[in-house]
Specification:
alpha/beta, six-stranded mixed beta sheet, four-stranded antiparallel beta sheet, 10 strands, about 60% helix
């Protein structure tokens, strides 16, 4: 997306709040209208103020001067406030749309975008983009209207000299265009380097245990320092490119002012212009330098803002997760009968088939276990059931309905999943149990008891209101896992999936959790994925996976009697 299209799209976010913009413009124009009154007042004072008969009370002079500057300041403040009110509303809309895009995005986005970079783009980029543009627009309006008002007054005083002063405008435009190209090129590279640096910091803070375990502090420090140095160079180049704008434009402007001063002095000597008129003209001319300089300084903030906005819209335009389903499952409608019919799944960029012509039947209300070595396709089965990966061949049905025909939100509402990668949310423990659902304290307590976490909760001063920290950092590994199990138990889902759900628990806690899970036998469809085979012995059916296929199936007793792969795995674990 080019910068013209980016700016047009960005302004579409601001336009709903144009009432604030219009009032702000009115304030800026009113402030600008007061500006020429300052040299006009000087003209009157010089022409009439040093005479015996002033013609007006002397006390009016300080009141007029103070009043002019106070009115101009109040109007400028009001214009700036109104503009920023409008842009803050746009920031809110941008952030909301960005978060919505991230949540709807296809799963491939999460393999390309680190959490830190995503947070930076959602939180910082909208503020930086609209803030920079709001500041630039404020400058354009405040100083642009001031410049126009002063030029109007100059034309009124002496239109010939004012026309001569305008010959510097094309030269100023050429300088701005040259610097503009340089700032844009360097600014883009600076932004990319900043995003990479955010990614490195995210890696360091998220994986600090790994960093320290591998004694990689110096390595990460060096990696950070190299990228930080690269960002410093890019930032310095960007600042240097933008900084050339001021001296170049000042040289051009000062050349024009010098020319005008000389011509004004010559004309004053020839035509006998009054001192007041001459001082008023020169004062107004000098007063144009400041707004002209400010106007030439808006290039870099505008470009930086548009670069940030372009990154926002690139994230916003990330393809959404495909959802062709039209069927909405009403509460209580789902029985929980799952079938995989010759399902093949191949991940993008891989020739290996994660699932290969898989045939699998999970009857409603039954407890089914999936076992097998790592990489055999167990977790891919869960991802396929939930619609996170799409089969390249075959189909998956829920109660006889192809899952592609069910709206994904409705499909996932039928599942409660505890995966081996525990994800918790910073905040009260009770909120994590009743995540995204109305809180029923009695139910929360029952779920925590079933997950063998209630005694721990009672030992805490805050009880259910204890803050668990980022991703449960205040909890042990086993406590985090038990909390995730309690969250799954709380969800009113027909199908429960426990993917290595008890792997971090001690034997006693595992036994208690297993008993809690087994009490739902016959009422819920339970899918257990485990490496620890002792946890799946009571399953109605055990499917043994290998290379994306089911190679054995049956009860624990049946599989042990066959003496196949499952029996060998049980024997190996018994020896360990």
């Amino acid at each position: 997306m080019d910068l013209k299209a980016t700016s047009k799209r960005l302004f579409s976010y601001i336009s709903p709040y144009k009432s604030g913009l219009i009032l702000g413009i009115v304030c800026f124009f009113s402030s600008a209208a007061i500006e020429p009154l300052v040299p006009a007042l000087l003209k009157q004072l010089l022409d009439h103020g040093f005479q015996a008969d002033l013609g007006f009370p002397l006390w009016l002079v300080p009141i007029a001067v103070i009043g002019l500057f106070a009115a101009r300041g109040l109007l400028a403040f009001s214009g700036t406030y109104l503009f920023n009110w409008s842009t803050s509303q746009a920031v809110l809309r941008l952030r909301t749309d960005l978060v919505g895009s991230v949540m709807r995005a296809d799963a491939s986005l999460y393999t390309q975008l680190s959490p830190g970079v995503a947070a930076s783009r959602v939180i910082n980029d909208p503020q930086n983009a609209t803030g920079a543009l709001a500041g630039a627009l404020t400058t354009l309006l405040r100083d642009g209207t001031t410049l126009l008002a002063l030029l109007g007054y100059l034309f009124y005083l002496n239109w010939k000299l004012t026309l001569v002063s305008l010959i510097t405008m094309p030269l100023l435009g050429m300088v701005v265009r040259i610097v503009h190209k340089r700032v844009l090129a360097v600014g883009g590279r600076s932004y990319e380097s900043q995003i990479r640096l955010v990614g490195i910091v995210d890696d360091i803070t998220r994986a600090w245990r790994v960093v320290r375990t591998f004694d990689a502090a110096e390595f990460e420090q060096r990696r950070f320092a190299e990228e930080a140095q690269r960002l410093r160079r890019m930032t310095l180049k960007s600042i240097a490119a933008a900084a050339t704008m001021t001296p170049l434009t000042q040289i051009v402007a000062s050349t024009g002012v010098a020319l005008i001063l000389t011509l004004a002095l010559i004309e004053a000597n020839r035509s006998g212009t009054s001192v007041g008129e001459f001082v008023a003209f020169i004062t107004a001319m000098l007063m144009t330098i400041s707004p002209m300089r400010h106007l030439t300084d808006v290039t870099q903030p505008i470009l930086n803002g548009l670069i940030g906005a372009r990154a926002c819209f690139a994230l916003m335009d990330t393809p959404a997760e495909p959802d062709s389903g039209t069927i909405e499952l009403s509460p209580g409608q789902c029985r929980g009968d799952l079938r995989f019919e010759r399902v093949t799944v191949t991940y993008p960029g891989s020739e290996h088939k994660a699932l290969n012509q898989l045939e699998l039947e999970i009857p409603a209300g039954k407890t089914v276990a999936l076992v097998g070595p790592s990489g055999s396709g167990k977790t891919t089965i869960v991802n396929a059931m939930l619609g996170f990966v799409a089969p390249t061949e075959g189909r998956i049905t829920l109660d006889g309905i192809d899952v592609t025909e069910i709206r994904k939100a409705s499909l996932r509402r039928q599942f409660a999943v505890v995966s081996q990668d525990i994800v918790l949310f910073d905040g009260p423990l009770a909120d994590n149990v009743a995540y995204a659902a109305p809180k029923d304290m009695a139910r929360i307590e029952a779920c925590l008891k079933a997950a063998n976490l209630w005694d721990f909760v009672q030992s805490q001063p805050e009880g259910l209101n204890m803050t668990i920290g980022t991703n449960g950092s205040r909890l042990s590994g086993g406590q985090r896992q038990r909390l995730a199990i309690a969250r799954a138990l709380y969800k009113q889902a027909r199908i429960w999936v426990f993917d290595e759900a008890t792997s971090a628990l001690d034997s006693e806690s595992e036994r208690i959790v297993q008993q809690s899970i087994e009490q739902w036998h016959g009422e819920k469809t339970l899918i257990l994925i485990a490496h620890r085979l002792s946890t799946v012995r009571n399953a109605d059916c055990i499917y043994v996976m290998s290379d994306g296929r089911v190679v054995e199936s049956g009860t624990h007793k049946e599989l042990m009697e066959r003496g196949g792969l499952y029996a060998g795995m049980v024997a190996a674990q018994a020896m360990e």
